[in-house]
Amino acid sequence: MKRTLALLLVSTFVGSIAFAQDEDVDAETGQRIKYKERTEIDFEGVDVSGELVKPSGALLMDVKRNQFNPLIRFRENFDAEMKNSVDEVK
User: What is the mean pLDDT of the chain?
Assistant: First the structure.
C-alpha cells in the first residue's frame, strides 16, 4: 500500500513538472514573446557627471583606541607547584 501511494505521488510530481515548462507568453495578450539573442547597450551618448564625496581624514585620525587592562595574568614561575607534585608522586 505504501509503495503504491509513493509511486502515485512521484508520478504526480513528475507529471506536473512536465506541464510547468516555461514558455515566454505575455500574461495580458497571450502572445508568445521572442527575445533577441544578444542585447547591445551603447553608453557613448550618455554624459555622466558627479562629485566624489568622502569623510574628512581629520575626524578619523583623532579617534583613539581604548586601552583595557588584561583580566588574565600569565604566571612566569611554577616552581612551588612542581615541588608539590613531586611530593604527591612519592
Answer: 76
Report d(CA 74, CA 76) in Å as an integer: 6
Q: 14 to each of 2, 4, 8, 29, 38, how far by Cα in Å? A: 18, 15, 10, 29, 33
Integer angstrom CA distances of residue 25 from 16, 36, 39, 75: 19, 15, 20, 76
d(CA 78, CA 86): 13
Is the pLDDT higher at 10 or at 18?
Answer: 10
Task: Residue count of the chain, please give it.
Answer: 90
CA distance 10 to 19: 15
User: Whole-prediction pTM value?
Assistant: 0.20
